[in-house]
Design brief:
The complex is a heterodimer. By secondary structure, chain A is α/β, with parallel strands linked by helices. Chain A is built from 15 helices and 13 strands. In chain A, helix 9 crosses helix 11, helix 9 packs across helix 12 and helix 9 packs across helix 14. The N terminus of chain A is likely disordered. By secondary structure, chain B is an alpha+beta fold. Chain B has 3 domains: 287 residues, no CATH class; 121 residues, no CATH class; 58 residues, Arc Repressor Mutant, subunit A (Orthogonal Bundle). Chain B has 15 helices and 14 strands. In chain B, the strands form 3 sheets. Chain B has a 9-stranded mixed β-sheet. A 3-stranded antiparallel β-sheet of chain B has the order 4-3-14, with no helix packed on it. Chain B has a two-stranded antiparallel ribbon with strand order 7-8. In chain B, helix 6 crosses helix 7 and helix 7 crosses helix 9. Classes of the chains: A alpha/beta, B alpha+beta.
């Protein structure tokens, strides 16, 4: 069977990936001038980086290693010593990070070079990157549209070919949704497999470090470099490896009722099914009865944790400090009032509300129970299938502002991505097609815990059989 | 004086600062008295992206206390976030334990003044992080985060204490126990042991009344005074037909009274929820076995044993077992004697105990040292006592030798040799001096012969003076009597 063979080959491909063997390792040296010119040209149009400086901390990366000399972008909610950590919020404007996140440090140790910090929705809260206090990020496919979010800057930078990969964080789809909007790969690993140390917490029990990349094997290489237990993150675990060699035969395909997906996504989703069938995979239709609870459960848990996680930003030790305030209490209040944007305040208030005394059973603890039920439903599906296929988001990239999708509709649309965060399972957004409107659409695969290899393998087979289109006019630096 | 109309219920919340190398969730040093903001890092300063990493040493000490308090140990202990905004708390939530602490439902055997003991029930023992310190100076407030994230263990009792005096005794005995365990220095002035009290009164047999919480009880003496004040205040309120308001009251030592700090209505909603950054802690069997075997003999039990084993009186036993280092010193000294059969162990133990509580303690007090910090060792004390026992020196000279050991940090035997302090037991030599003294004091001799026996002391003094105190006193007295009454 074709799928199986190619999947088998894929496992060992991390040593000879396009990112390590191609021209990416030369863009900071031999091809520096033309590379910088290229970046500058695209940056003016898409605004993906909040800070960009290839020399700033180049010395922090090892000269040798699998990723030596390869540039990458890091979402600005990760700590990277030498760069700021603004989280896209005024309350952290100009705050220099005093240390480096474990995930970033591991990549530096393998030789990769942080060239800048990418734009995001403040604290990872949003689906458009429009909630950034500093910059508008445009979709390289259509500059009037968003790149998605919250890791929109990372997705846009990768799609425009400015870096071969970028780190994002995924709490409810923040890596996979912008990946789908920008036509790149977006990996959300199993919870706990990549250390969160240095990633600014939005919702600690849902947050994971994710990868956005142009190719499957780049995602695989980067993931394999970052994974592993970290003593600085007590929730991290070592990766036991795939239980079945990453083998994929049978894929459970979520049945989506009519009228939920936009025309483009519906068409693309149907294409994905046909492609998998043509590649020899066995498909079975499934339904997820718990799907209707996913969004309310997600927002209950995420906002509850966020309300505590964001309490530390009070303007006293670092970051924005209000000129108002007669005593420490008033000063904290004014700094938070002026420093946080409305979306962040909305989520803090919601989280405070669900945690208030006497209501935990009704909201937070109930949400945790439903979370367990969702996980159980997935486990049952995995008894008879190797992967689950779902859409990433009901629409392709939408226009800036709320003309096409208001902020409430954007939240409701998180249902397909939130499931992986609530269950802790690994998921990958795979670019699949560009529809008539010229926008890319991705499809999502979810695997059992620690089965990232199955995701890479199925994506690798699709990549080989049906190469996904790239943004018109971009340069593929891996070929130079 | 006895409150007969009302019954009193006091429950204590005791915080102890655990002795550990590093803070409870990061690698910063856990020490008192450093320059402000020198023992800090991104983790304890609450920088974006940091995570807590649990300190095993703090966990071990927490379990030692929970076990010593006979607690039931939860199979799964859960850290929770306690949310409230305060400038000295970097994250604006405190990592603590709430629903599933390390230990629950324990008890402490409180020794009462009549010598009997009563079980004071322990509600729970939980581990948490301390906050920093905010110092107000005029129109400014200064923040020092050195203390932020240091390990704090909170012990909550049930409302089983019935008076300020009992509460004071509990804190004293509890402090002694945790110092024995070596988990804290228990220094109340430095805040290593802090105490809040919940107190209510009610008519006899009617159960708990409406409680008030008294804070700022920073010494065991304050605890008694504050609670006695508060009990009287509550009685006055009830006697006048009014109701007690559930509130937090602050003890003000300068005016010796409690005053209202905040009422329940305006109190915080802490919005507890499980800490997602720390997995539940499930103590393994071998860990618990290791903790159990590391628990030393506790003071109440040791006092009883030492009293019986060495035949000490109450007062001596209380002194000897007051601090673990003293009890260890005492037992080590006695052990040296057991290898030497010239005196029975009970005799020697009594002597050692009285030297330790008297001469030794006096020098320690004067020099503000603990016995283990001083240069006296069980071997040196044993040597001094042996020199006295075998008449090489008198008890009086022994005192001097002891002082010199402290001063010069030298061996007692060497000091005696070097300074020629060994007493004269040569009969001929002392006889000669005695006859000179008797001849020189005919009036005293006559008086003695007429029955004024006490005057012998005067002659003894003269003999000692003439020999620079080195005459064996027993021998000298014998020779004086022999000479006069012949």
């Amino acid at each position: 069977m074709q799928g199986k063979d190619m999947a088998g080959n894929g496992i060992n491909s991390s040593d000879s990936s396009s990112v390590t063997n191609g021209g990416w390792s030369k863009v900071l040296s031999e091809n520096k001038a033309s590379y910088l010119e290229y970046v500058d040209g695209w940056e003016k149009k898409i605004g993906s980086f909040l800070e960009y400086d290839i020399e700033r901390i180049r010395s922090a990366s090892c000269r040798e290693g699998a990723l030596a000399g390869i540039p990458f972008g890091v979402k600005d909610n990760f700590a990277v010593e030498g760069f700021n950590i603004t989280c896209g919020s005024k309350i952290l404007e100009g705050v220099a990070s005093p240390y480096t996140a474990t995930s970033v440090a591991k990549l530096q140790k393998a030789g990769a070079v942080v060239v800048g910090k990418t734009n995001l929705d403040a604290f990872g809260m949003g689906s458009s990157t429009d909630n950034s206090a500093f910059k508008v990020t445009n979709n390289p496919w259509d500059l009037t549209r968003v790149a998605g979010g919250s890791s929109g800057g990372s997705a846009a930078a990768v799609a425009a070919g400015l870096v071969p990969f970028a780190l994002g964080s995924d709490t409810g789809g923040s890596v996979r949704q912008p990946a789908s909007f920008c036509g790149v790969y977006g990996l959300k690993p199993t919870y706990g497999v990549v250390s969160r140390y240095g990633l600014t917490a939005y919702a600690s029990s849902l947050d994971v470090v994710g990868v956005l990349s142009r190719t499957v094997d780049t995602a695989r290489t980067v993931f394999n470099t970052m994974k592993g237990r970290d003593i600085l993150d007590n929730t991290s675990v070592s990766h036991p490896g795939s239980a079945n060699n990453g083998d994929v035969k049978k894929i459970a395909v979520l049945k989506v009722s009519d009228g939920i997906l936009s025309k483009e996504v519906e068409l693309s989703y149907a294409k994905s099914k046909n492609r998998l069938l043509s590649l020899g995979f066995e498909l079975i239709d499934i339904e997820l009865t718990s799907l209707e609870y996913v969004v309310p459960v997600y927002y209950t848990i995420a906002t509850a944790e966020a309300s505590a996680n964001l309490a530390r930003f009070n303007g006293l030790r670092y970051g924005y400090q209000s000129p108002e305030g007669k005593d420490p209490g008033e000063l904290m209040q004014a700094s938070r009032d002026e420093g946080f944007c409305d979306e962040v305040k909305l989520r803090i208030l919601l989280g405070t509300y669900v945690l208030r005394s006497g209501f935990q059973d009704q909201y937070y603890l109930k949400a945790q129970k439903i979370r367990t039920a969702i996980r159980n439903e997935f486990n049952t599906i995995f008894e008879s299938a190797d992967l689950v296929m779902m859409p990433v988001f009901p629409t392709p990239a939408f226009k800036h502002g709320s003309a096409e999708l208001d902020t409430f509709q954007q939240k409701v649309a998180d249902l397909y991505t939130c499931t992986a965060n609530l269950t802790g399972l690994p998921a990958l957004a795979v670019p699949s097609s560009v529809e008539e409107n010229g926008l890319p659409v991705g499809v999502q695969f979810t695997a059992p815990a620690f089965e990232e290899d199955r995701l890479f393998n199925v994506a690798g087979v699709l990549e080989a059989g049906f190469p996904s289109p790239t943004v018109p006019g971009i340069k593929d630096w891996s070929k130079f | 004086m006895k409150q007969t109309k009302y019954q009193t219920f006091i429950g204590l919340e005791v915080h102890i600062h655990l002795i550990t190398e590093s803070k409870v969730f990061c690698g910063c040093r856990n020490v008192f008295g450093s320059e402000p903001n020198t023992n800090v890092c991104p983790v304890c300063m609450g920088y974006p992206g940091v995570l807590p990493s649990l300190n095993e040493e703090a966990v071990k000490k927490a379990y030692q206390v929970a076990m010593a308090l006979n607690c039931h140990l939860n199979e799964k202990a859960v850290f929770e976030r306690k949310n409230y905004f305060y400038p000295d708390m970097p994250k604006n939530y405190q990592i603590s334990q709430f629903e599933y602490p390390f230990g629950i439902n324990g008890y402490f055997d409180l020794e009462l003044t009549d010598g009997s003991t009563r079980k004071i029930r322990i509600h729970d023992v939980h581990l948490e992080e301390d906050a920093g310190k905010m110092i107000h100076e005029g129109s400014h407030s200064k923040l020092d985060y050195n203390r932020a994230g240091t390990p704090l263990l909170e012990i909550v009792t049930e409302p089983d204490l019935v008076s300020g005096e009992e509460a004071e005794a509990f804190v004293q005995q509890f402090r002694q126990m945790v110092r024995y365990l070596g988990v804290t220095d228990g220094n109340m002035e430095e805040g290593s042991l802090r105490c809040d009290a919940n107190v209510s009164i009610n008519e006899q047999g009617k159960g708990l009344g409406t409680k008030t919480e008294c804070k700022n009880l920073n010494s065991s003496r304050f605890i008694k005074k504050a609670l006695e004040y508060e009990i009287k205040r509550q009685a006055k309120v009830l006697n006048s037909g009014e109701k007690i308001i559930q509130e937090t009251r602050l003890w003000d030592e300068s005016v010796a009274r409690t005053s209202s700090m905040r009422t329940k209505e305006s109190s915080n909603d802490y919005r507890y929820f499980p800490e997602p950054d720390l997995p539940p802690y499930r103590p393994k069997a071998d860990f618990l076995e290791m903790v159990k075997s590391s628990i030393v003999e506790l003071p109440g039990i040791r006092k009883k044993r030492i009293k019986e084993e060495y035949g000490l009186n109450d007062q001596q036993a209380v002194f000897i077992t007051g601090e673990k280092e003293m009890a260890d010193f005492f037992e080590n000294t006695v052990l040296l004697n057991s290898k030497d059969s010239s005196s029975t162990s009970k005799e020697f133990a009594a002597t050692a105990a009285s030297w330790l509580s008297g001469n030794v303690q006096k020098i320690l007090n004067d020099s503000c040292l603990g016995i283990s910090e001083s240069c006296l060792s069980p071997e040196r004390l044993f040597a001094v006592l042996k020199l006295i026992e075998n008449n090489t020196i008198s008890a009086g000279t022994g005192k001097k030798v002891l002082a010199m050991v402290f001063e010069k940090n030298e061996e007692p035997g060497d000091l005696v040799d070097k300074l020629g302090l060994a007493q004269v037991s040569d009969t001929g030599e002392i006889e000669k001096i005695v006859s000179e003294i008797v001849d020189a004091n005919p009036k005293v001799v006559d008086a003695i012969r007429e029955g004024a026996d006490k005057q012998i002391g005067f002659l003894m003094g003269q003999v000692m003076k003439a020999t620079s105190g080195k005459a064996n006193p027993g021998l000298a007295q014998k020779l004086i009597r022999k000479k006069i009454l012949k």
